[in-house]
Every structure is written in structure tokens, then in C-alpha cells.
């Protein structure tokens, strides 16, 4: 994640790109082919310039391949013409010998087929290091033990590993490159690796980093990857890897922002991740629809021509996939929510995206002016961008003080093909507080040859239906707009309110109108139809494409008003086939070529009538199932079984199958304080909870009276210790501590003189740190027995239990991150098919007393109504700031984790496919109490969304839910 830092008060930069002649900005390619090119202005694919607008998603954060299409369709519908994806090395490489690109969601190739089918380009970002707020930044755990050096450098030990991984990735992705007919147009080398210079100001080359980047480059070219290479710098000022800033080696083809290259924001803020102690539900209010409106347009004012919205769909941090700071949600307050629902932020994103899709002239503009002098009101700041070839211009207006809450009415001085004008001629443009608008002059209407000389309402979209062109304008309700349509002489109001002002000029017709809740339709005598809607209506407008082309040409789209989503469209003979979503009864209105007489929506004909302005009007009937009805039909989570979750605390627990923790040396760069080495890495455990059992004797004169433990697990982690089954104490953790140390007095516990004594330490881990911190171990840094005499004493031996099988993959579908070493996890109690018939009955909401742990299980039959897309979540309520840690398992997937002591997230959406919507679902809940108060968690299943939909959430997902097999060897 990178925050492209734009302060809330958007400072007016004085950096004006001067108007250069054509030859001063040559078009570049990577020397291998001319399929993808670029220059100062924009990216070109097959010679075609465009505003490149991608949305980031991480397929491994939505481990249900059947749902990827849903996300991609939603992004396409919002006007995106591409996606960007990070790969996650560790997800594919459970150990140093296995690479898995086939099991379940490990096979990411369907993303490329979907992108191609839907018409989205792909920026592929396979790492090897990805960051992404993910466990180890995507570096596999086994790589972070020190055995492979410091990583992200030219060390041959590291090179051998990343190249083994990347060679396969290259092999798999190569057929999907645009040069081979696929959607991938860029390939990113490394990530947030701004290390080209030891000192960015003095430009002292960092030879090791340069060698690494060159090796990445050379190997990848050697494997036949021939699209441009890009980089993504952690901030602008490292200026690493740009040919515009250096020539010391390792430079990539296309860099974020540099003069001879397109202004490219590889990660523009789509939201923000939510740390453990962040607010429940994330921080959407700071990055809501208003934020989208202002900041997305500000990028246009900055002449940014390629933007990757990070994240467009965040998804989940299921199964220990996150790094320590973040909780189990990666919703990111993104336009498409973790639960796949869309709301106002998405809609506002769509208003921007659909406009930019038809703003073809923007792909080549100069920033020719910026000031407060453009407007009749000095509080309005305007940036003018102009296409030097067509003279089409974009005026981006906002309050000079961008957080302003003022409502300002003004007129704008614009330069058009018919001379200078102050627009509107009648009335005003309104800016309501924190808001921005992009107003256009000399705007071509598709390839019809017609154009708008100016418009003071924003354009939503344009569809060229061959016999007529439809332009949809929008503005907030109650505002006014005015346009000058070139070549028009007459206008007829076909629907909605009257025109407020109209005048004929030699160049065309000027009309002004009010914007209200009822759409207005104006028909001009030159075949142009203007549809005028307010913001809320615009939110329900869609412009699906009829072909799989990221360019989404105006003559290959139709317009649909009404539904909650249009996923795709196709015309065959006189039928328009639409797929989409809706819930309550909706009037639908469709603008399609006049050859279309019938409409099928989700494969069912809907009756339509032609309006007096040649659109088709019909009704989508109210859906039978609603959030309320589905909620009422859900079975209660009332019948639970329970078992002891921490039998390992007992003195006589049989740990003979555990791994001896007996290493006396370590390759970790920072050795422990005491030996043996109690780093889980040493013993092949790299995810989730860890259990340590240390033995000591209490014979002789030096009888220990306390133990000092310093444990490391990452920000927010916790641990508890037991002596011979008795609770000694716990570290509750917090967001400031990666390690936690305590001296625990033995007090009431009787030590055995005649046999060994056992200390059990249970700790959770919060994932591995990113960057250099990935090498931080997880485990015990210092374990010292303290005797009355004050002299330290050693343990006689240690054992460790981690996830069953360690890095030897037990379950290829869910991979090695999903589980840790809890008793329930090692024995597979969380999996469907485990027999709990001899367990006791017990409710997690009743809970238990004492500093121990319990595992609860229930099986929930779901029979949800077919034909709907339904979004479900589990809600885990608990006493305020309770000292417990709980983990939720759904059909074996760890899909939620609460740490009430400082964490706030309680709602955990779970995808269909993980949940069987027409069958039994095994729910597991582990509650680990870190003090004597014990633990209780009230768990509810909640319905978040119900839509009639063409999306099939009743696909056969059985293969995603592997069943229990005997795991007693891991007890
Ligand atoms: C994997 O790691 C083990 C343990 O460090 C080592 O013995 C083995 O040679 C490695 N295998 C490969 C293919 O590097
Ligand atoms: C039109 O406005 C532009 C920008 O303010 C100015 O440079 C130009 O001189 C004006 N042209 C006329 C004919 O007034
Ligand atoms: C336009 O705005 C100006 C300045 O606020 C105001 O004086 C004028 O009345 C407005 N005109 C209309 C038609 O609203």
C-alpha cells in the first residue's frame, strides 16, 4: 500500500507543464514490440491512447474463484478499463520444494480469462515481494528464516528461490500477455523498492539493489515476458528506477511519475486499511463518496493519465494472510466492499469512471492554466487541460480551499472553438462545499462528428446508437446546467421539465435546464438526445458494453437506468440481453439501437414499451426475498458442542509427537537471548498460534520461584503461560508491542521434586512483518527460570506444536496460512465431517470461567433462495474489552478473529463457496481466555444484502471445503 499523499487542502501546484511540440515528447516502447507504448501524455495499446484506469484486487483475498467474475463485472460497470493484481508468493509456495498454481484459488489464471472476456486490461504485479499488508509482504515464511540471507537482493540463495517461483509464473502468464492476445499489458518488477540510490539526493548508486533489479529484468525477459516493465515506488522522492532520473542500471520501462512518461499513479488511495484498533467497519467516512468526487477529479487536474485505485476491492484477511498491523478485514473502505456489496462510494466512482471512458481527448492534454481567475468568483480554483490536436478542453473546478463548506455560484471563462465565452449565459454553475466538477468544451460525441461546444453540467456517459446519440448529463438535484450543441437548430422537450433558457447561435443551440428528481429528455434536430438526471438517478445509470473491449467505444454501449447493477449486455437480432441485479421493484429504461425490440433480463423476457423518445421502458418486479425475509429464514446458531481447547496445559499432556525445539544455533540474523532457539521458523511452523512446552526439574538447592519470558509475535499478539496446568499469567498485547515480556511468580503452584515440571506457553502470531522485518522471528526470545538465590536456571528441554504438518501441505486448497497450532486446529476439529458426537453441549454465549480455552462447534443447514446473490456475515459480540482471543472457522476456513482488548472488528463477511448456501455448514469457534474471568462470545449470522441476480452463488463449491481426515498424529 502506498498513500499518494495529497493533503486535504489540495495545494495548487505551480508546476505547469509547458506546451511542448509533438516532437519533444517521443513515443516510447520497450524495444521488443510496439503493442504497448507510452509518452509524456498517455499509455497506448496498439496505437490507441487512453486514460488507463485500473482497480486493484487480490484474488488470494477472495479464495473462491467462482466469485472473481462478480468483482470484475462490478469494476467494469463502474467504468474501469483494467485491474491490477498482486501475486502472493507465500500463498503459492508452502515450502521450498512445492509451487502450487492449481489447487482451488491458487490457480489464478481464470482472472486473465475473465479480464479478457469482460474487457479489462491487467497490470500484473507478481512481486516477488508484494507488501500488500500481507504476511511477510508475500515472502513465504520458510524464506524468512535467515537461511536465504537478507532477501530482496542479488544473494544467489535468494535468487535461486524467487527465480524458481517467477519462472513458473512467467510460464503461466505469458499466454495472457497482450502481445499474445491476452489482457496483460504491464508487468511490475518488485514493489515499493525505492532502493536505487544509497542517497537519492546525491544519486549514489546502490549496486546491490541495481543488480537485483537487473536480474529480475533479465531473467523475466529471458522467459519471454515482453510487455513493459513498471515499478511502484513507496514515495515519489526516492525517484528510483526511472529512465528520466537516472541511468545507473535497473531502470524500468515505465515509471510512476516522470516527464517523458505518462503521469501514472500506481497506487492511488482507494481507501485505507483498518488496523486492529481502528474503528469497526473501517474509516469510510473519511474516504466516502465526497472524497471520491474531489480527489479523483483532482488527479485529472494534475494531468494524471493512468491511475490504479488501491484498493478497488479489498476483500478479507482470512486465515493469517495479513501482516501484524491489520485485522482480518481488508475491506479498505474500497468502492466494492469486502462483502461484495456496492454503495454510494462505488456509485460516485462510477460517475467519474463512465465519464472518463468517453473523455477520449483527455488521453492527450497539456495543462495550460490554473488559477482562480477563470471564474467570476475568486473562491473557485480552476485547472484547464487542453488537447493540442483537437482543442477539446477540460476545466476542473473546485473551491480554492478544497474542504470549504460554502455553496458558491459562479460563471466560468472558457476558450472554445467559437471564441471565448463566459458560461453559462443564463444562471450559474454551483459548487456545493467539498466538491469538484469537470466541465468540458469542444467535446466530441463519440465518433459521430458531432460535438458539444460546452456544457456546465457534467457528462455521465455517451452512447452512439447509430441513428441517434444519447448524452447523459448529471448534476446534484436542484442545480442547473447549460450546453451549446454544435449544429443544432431546434430542440424539443420530450420528458421532464421545461427548458429555462434557449438561444440560437450561428454555431448551434444553447439550452439551459434545471436538474431535478425527474429525468429530463431533450431531443435536438441533429440526432442528439440529452438525458438530464440528478446525482441519485445517475447512481442508477449503467452503460454496459456490447463487446469485450477495454476501450468500450460509444457505438458499442447501451444505456440502462434503474437496476442496482448491470453486469453485461449483448444484442442478438432484435433482442437485448442484460444480466444484472436488483432488489425492490424498479422501473427500467433502456436506450439501445432502434433495431432492439425485446429485452431479456437475467434470461427472462421483460415487457417493454417504446417511449416517445425511443427508449424502452419496463419494470423489474419486486424480488420476493429481502434482507428481512432471508434473515428470518436463517437457522439460529443455538446448538453447540464444546470441548477443552487447551489440554496441553496439563502436566501429563502427551507431547511425544511434538517437534523437539533443540536447535543450539540459528541462521536468524538476531540470535535469541537464551538457548535452545525457540523460534518457530527453526522448526518449520510459520502461521497462527504456537504452543511451547518447556521442562525443568526442581531438585537440588536452586529451586526456581519464577520464570521470565520474552515472547515475540508481532504487533497486537498475546500469550499465556501455565505451570503444571496452573495459570501463571498472560500478556494481553497492544498495538505498540511486537514483543511482550513478563516475570511470572510460581506462587501457589506446587513444584514437583520427583518428576519434571512443565511450563506451557501459548502465543498467537500476527503474521510476519513486511520488508526487512520479515526476518523477525516468532517464538520465545528469552526463557529463564529464576531461583530464590537469584541465579538463572535453564530449562532441560523444549517442544513446539504449530500448524499440523507444518509447511508440508496437508490441505492444498486452503494452503498453509489458514491454520495454526491450536489443539482444535491440529486435530481438525474446525473441519467439516469431524465427529463431535461425544462432546458436551455448550453455548459460546454462555462461555466459561477461568483462564483456559474452549472450542465450540455447530453445524448450520442453509437453504437460501435461489436466483439471488446473498451476502452473509458472522457477528461476534463479546463483553467490552474482554481479555480473550477468539477465532471463527467456517467449513474449515479461519474467517474471523477478535481481540476485544483493543480490537474493534466484530463483523466478518463470509463468501458463498466458503459457505454452502444449500447444505450443511460447519462453524467452529475457538475462545482463548487470557484471564480468570474466562470467555464468552455471542455469535450471530447476519444477512447483509439480498439481490435478484444473474450471479450464481449456488455453484458446486464442494471442492473448496475439504473434509476432516484423521489427524491424531499431530496431537
Ligand atoms: C529446502 O530446505 C531444506 C531445509 O533447509 C533443504 O535441506 C533443502 O535442500 C531445500 N530444498 C531446496 C529445493 O532448496
Ligand atoms: C481568450 O481567452 C484566452 C485565455 O484567457 C486568452 O489568452 C485569449 O487572448 C482570449 N482570446 C480573445 C480573442 O479574447
Ligand atoms: C448567479 O450567482 C450570482 C452570484 O452568487 C448571483 O448574484 C445571481 O443571482 C445568480 N444567478 C442566478 C440566475 O441564480
From TrEMBL:
Alphabetized Gene3D superfamilies for the sequence: Beta-galactosidase, domain 2, Beta-galactosidase, domain 3, Galactose-binding domain-like, Glycosidases
Signal peptide feature range: 1-21
Keyword Hydrolase (UniProt): yes
GO MF entry, a single one: beta-galactosidase activity
One GO-annotated biological process of the protein: carbohydrate metabolic process
Superkingdom assignment: Eukaryota
Protein keywords: Glycoprotein, Glycosidase, Hydrolase, Signal
The UniProt record lists the keyword NAD: no
Record EC number: 3.2.1.23
Occurrences of domain Beta-galactosidase (ranges): 361-541
Catalytic activity as recorded in UniProt: Hydrolysis of terminal non-reducing beta-D-galactose residues in beta-D-galactosides
Top-level enzyme category: hydrolase
InterPro entries in the cross-refs: Betagal_dom2 (IPR018954), Betagal_dom2_sf (IPR037110), BetaGal_dom3 (IPR025972), BetaGal_dom3_sf (IPR036833), BetaGal_jelly_roll_dom (IPR025300), Galactose-bd-like_sf (IPR008979), GH (IPR017853), Gly_Hdrlase_35_cat (IPR031330)
Family: Belongs to the glycosyl hydrolase 35 family.
Protein name: Beta-galactosidase
Species of provenance: Aaosphaeria arxii CBS 175.79
Amino acid at each position: 500500500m502506498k498513500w499518494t499523499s495529497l493533503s486535504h487542502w489540495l495545494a495548487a501546484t505551480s508546476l505547469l507543464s509547458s506546451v511542448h511540440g509533438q516532437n519533444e515528447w517521443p513515443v516510447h516502447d520497450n524495444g521488443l514490440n510496439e503493442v504497448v507504448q507510452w509518452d509524456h501524455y498517455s499509455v497506448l495499446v496498439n496505437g490507441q491512447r487512453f486514460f488507463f484506469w485500473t482497480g486493484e484486487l487480490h484474488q488470494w483475498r477472495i479464495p473462491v474463484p467462482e466469485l472473481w467474475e462478480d468483482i470484475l463485472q462490478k469494476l467494469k460497470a463502474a467504468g474501469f478499463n483494467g485491474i491490477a493484481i498482486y501475486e502472493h508468493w507465500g500463498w503459492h509456495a508452502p515450502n521450498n520444494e512445492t509451487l502450487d498454481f492449481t489447487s482451488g484459488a491458487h490457480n489464478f489464471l481464470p482472472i486473465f480469462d475473465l479480464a479478457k472476456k469482460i474487457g479489462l486490461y491487467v497490470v500484473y504485479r507478481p512481486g516477488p515481494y508484494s507488501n500488500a499488508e500481507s504476511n511477510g509482504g508475500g515472502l513465504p515464511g520458510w524464506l524468512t528464516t535467515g537461511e536465504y540471507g537478507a532477501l530482496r537482493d542479488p544473494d544467489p540463495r535468494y535468487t535461486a528461490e524467487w527465480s524458481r517461483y517467477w519462472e513458473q509464473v512467467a510460464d503461466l502468464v505469458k499466454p495472457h500477455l497482450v502481445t499474445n492476445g491476452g489482457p496483460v499489458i504491464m508487468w511490475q518488477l518488485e514493489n515499493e523498492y525505492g532502493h536505487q540510490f544509497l542517497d537519492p539526493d546525491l544519486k549514489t548508486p546502490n549496486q546491490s539493489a541495481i543488480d537485483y533489479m537487473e536480474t529480475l529484468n533479465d531473467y523475466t525477459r529471458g522467459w519471454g515476458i515482453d510487455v513493459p516493465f513498471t515499478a511502484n515506488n513507496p514515495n515519489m522522492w526516492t525517484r528510483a528506477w526511472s529512465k528520466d532520473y537516472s541511468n545507473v542500471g535497473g531502470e524500468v520501462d515505465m515509471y510512476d511519475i516522470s516527464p517523458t512518461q505518462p503521469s501514472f499513479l500506481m497506487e492511488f488511495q482507494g481507501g485505507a486499511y483498518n488496523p486492529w484498533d481502528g474503528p469497526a467497519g473501517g474509516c469510510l467516512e473519511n474516504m466516502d463518496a465526497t472524497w471520491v468526487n474531489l480527489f479523483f477529479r483532482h488527479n485529472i487536474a494534475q494531468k494524471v493519465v493512468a491511475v490504479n485505485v488501491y484498493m478497488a476491492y479489498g476483500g478479507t484477511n482470512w486465515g493469517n494472510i495479513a501482516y501484524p498491523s491489520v485485522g482480518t478485514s481488508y475491506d479498505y473502505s474500497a468502492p466494492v466492499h469486502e462483502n461484495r456489496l456496492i454503495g454510494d462510494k462505488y456509485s460516485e466512482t462510477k460517475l467519474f469512471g463512465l465519464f472518463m471512458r468517453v473523455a477520449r481527448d483527455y488521453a492527450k492534454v497539456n495543462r495550460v492554466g490554473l488559477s482562480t481567475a477563470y471564474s467570476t468568483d475568486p473562491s473557485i480554483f480552476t485547472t484547464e487541460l487542453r488537447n493540442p490536436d483537437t482543442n477539446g478542453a477540460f476545466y476542473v473546478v473546485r473551491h480554492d480551499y478544497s474542504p470549504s463548506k460554502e455553496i458558491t455560484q459562479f460563471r466560468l471563462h472558457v476558450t472554445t472553438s467559437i471564441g471565448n465565452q463566459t458560461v453559462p449565459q443564463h444562471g450559474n454553475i454551483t459548487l456545493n462545499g467539498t466538491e469538484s466538477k469537470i466541465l468540458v468544451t469542444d467535446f466530441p460525441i463519440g465518433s459521430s462528428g458531432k460535438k458539444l461546444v460546452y456544457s456546465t453540467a457534467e457528462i455521465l456517459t455517451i452512447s452512439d446508437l447509430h441513428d441517434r446519440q444519447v448524452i447523459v448529463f448529471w448534476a446534484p438535484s436542484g442545480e442547473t446546467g447549460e450546453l451549446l450543441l454544435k449544429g443544432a437548430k431546434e430542440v424539443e422537450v420530450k420528458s421532464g421539465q421545461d427548458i429555462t433558457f434557449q438561444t440560437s447561435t450561428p454555431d448551434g443551440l444553447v439550452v439551459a435546464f434545471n436538474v431535478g428528481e425527474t429525468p429530463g429528455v431533450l431531443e435536438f434536430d441533429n440526432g442528439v438526445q440529452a438525458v438530464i438526471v440528478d446525482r441519485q438517478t445517475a447512481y442508477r445509470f449503467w452503460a454496459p458494453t456490447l463487446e469485450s473491449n477495454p476501450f468500450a467505444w460509444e457505438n458499442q454501449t447501451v444505456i440502462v437506468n434503474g437496476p442496482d447493477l448491470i453486469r453485461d449486455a449483448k444484442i442478438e437480432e432484435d433482442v437485448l440481453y442484460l444480466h444484472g441485479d436488483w432488489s425492490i421493484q424498479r422501473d427500467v429504461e433502456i436506450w439501445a439501437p432502434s433495431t432492439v425490440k425485446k429485452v431479456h433480463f437475467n434470461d427472462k423476457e421483460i415487457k417493454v414499451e417504446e417511449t416517445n423518445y425511443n427508449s424502452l421502458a419496463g419494470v423489474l418486479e419486486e424480488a420476493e426475498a429481502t434482507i428481512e425475509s432471508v434473515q428470518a429464514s436463517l437457522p439460529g446458531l443455538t446448538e453447540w458442542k464444546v470441548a477443552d481447547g487447551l489440554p496441553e496445559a496439563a502436566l501429563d499432556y502427551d507431547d511425544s509427537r511434538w517437534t523437539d525445539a533443540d536447535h543450539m544455533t540459528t541462521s536468524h540474523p538476531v540470535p535469541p537471548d537464551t538457548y535452545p532457539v525457540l523460534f518457530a521458523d527453526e522448526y518449520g511452523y510459520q502461521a497462527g498460534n504456537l504452543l511451547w512446552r518447556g521442562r525443568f526439574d526442581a531438585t537440588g538447592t536452586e529451586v526456581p520461584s519464577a520464570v521470565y519470558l520474552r515472547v515475540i509475535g508481532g504487533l497486537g499478539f498475546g500469550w499465556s503461560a501455565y505451570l503444571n496446568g496452573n495459570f501463571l499469567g498472560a500478556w494481553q498485547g497492544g498495538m505498540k508491542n511486537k514483543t511482550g515480556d513478563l516475570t511470572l511468580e510460581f506462587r501457589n503452584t506446587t513444584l514437583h521434586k520427583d518428576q519434571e515440571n512443565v511450563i506451557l506457553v501459548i502465543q498467537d502470531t500476527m503474521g510476519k512483518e513486511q520488508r526487512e522485518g520479515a526476518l523477525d522471528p516468532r517464538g520465545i526470545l528469552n526463557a529463564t527460570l529464576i531461583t530464590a538465590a537469584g541465579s538463572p536456571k535453564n530449562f532441560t528441554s523444549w517442544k513446539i506444536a504449530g500448524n499440523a504438518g507444518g509447511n508440508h501441505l496437508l490441505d492444498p486448497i486452503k494452503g498453509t496460512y489458514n491454520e495454526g497450532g491450536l489443539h482444535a486446529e491440529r486435530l481438525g476439529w474446525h473441519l467439516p465431517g469431524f465427529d463431535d458426537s461425544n462432546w458436551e453441549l455448550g453455548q459460546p454465549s454462555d462461555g466459561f470461567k477461568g483462564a483456559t480455552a474452549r472450542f465450540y462447534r455447530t453445524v448450520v443447514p442453509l437453504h437460501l433462495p435461489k436466483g439471488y446473490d446473498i451476502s452473509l456475515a458472522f457477528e461476534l459480540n463479546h463483553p467490552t474489552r474482554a481479555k480473550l482471543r477468539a477465532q471463527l472457522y467456517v467449513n474449515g476456513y479461519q474467517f474471523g478473529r477478535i481481540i476485544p482488548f483493543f480490537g474493534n472488528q466484530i463483523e466478518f463477511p463470509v463468501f458463498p463457496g466458503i459457505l454452502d448456501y444449500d447444505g450443511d455448514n460447519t462453524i467452529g469457534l475457538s475462545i482463548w481466555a487470557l484471564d480468570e474471568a474466562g470467555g464468552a462470545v455471542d455469535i450471530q449470522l447476519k444477512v447483509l444484502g439480498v439481490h435478484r441476480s444473474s450471479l450464481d452463488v449456488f455453484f458446486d463449491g464442494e471442492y473448496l471445503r475439504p473434509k476432516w481426515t484423521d489427524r491424531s498424529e499431530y496431537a
